[in-house]
């Protein structure tokens, strides 16, 4: 009996400041095998790619995708700006990846890779999707018309630095500008608003505690979360008017419990309301806003799926 070729596998590499995640992913977004190693152990791009070659061994791989943080020049596949990754700036990443792995190679921004994974999982075809990540900062990856969208300067979807407060009291942002979403809806922004509203000691407050207290009925915490939803909704509304994506997903550590809790679900509902309030009915009324589902494996899966589809 003839033996048919095994289904092709794709290698996804997700490099972050803390760890390097490797995943062998099949054509249906399923992880077949994975590995996680501290970035401080591997350090350079060359070491990471060599480690990936050893991880793969003699398993047949069709293509490899690399997800990196920071500002990626998507013509030269070179990082122009990145924090916490020494030795990665200015390196021709795609060429090095291809040289060491001897595989068809592609490089993508990690936020866009994560968005691409959620897009592939939902089989959205030519539709657009944005994945908004709420955490220490506010990030956003975009898939426009079925392709990851990095923008001409590697900065597309920088939702954290969209201005949502234009008043004289607008707060200064870490980037040097003022009134940006991240200052209000990033972790320290939420904590600062909680301190202002409650007069409590800064050391005791974390976003997780705000979420659990809100779940138990604490009105001040509930109000801080509602306010956060209004800010996030305004920014999503602006993005909606520009890019008009079919789906917007919320991920990251700051979803106040996400789909698991009443507080998280209410946060989502308030964001939907805020988006509808600030957009045309054809945009806000049709945009599906949900929680993301892939968590911190999304970058790795997305890198592999970009390699599957774009090479
Ligand atoms: Zn900013």
Automatic annotation (TrEMBL):
InterPro entries: ATPase_NBD (IPR043129), ROK (IPR000600), ROK_cs (IPR049874). It comes from the Bacteria. The keyword Cell division does not apply. Its EC number is 2.7.1.2. Pfam families: ROK. It is an enzyme of class 2 (transferase). GO terms for molecular function: glucokinase activity. The keyword Kinase applies. Keywords: Kinase, Transferase. PROSITE patterns: ROK. SUPFAM superfamilies: Actin-like ATPase domain. Belongs to the ROK (NagC/XylR) family. This is Glucokinase. It comes from Novipirellula galeiformis.
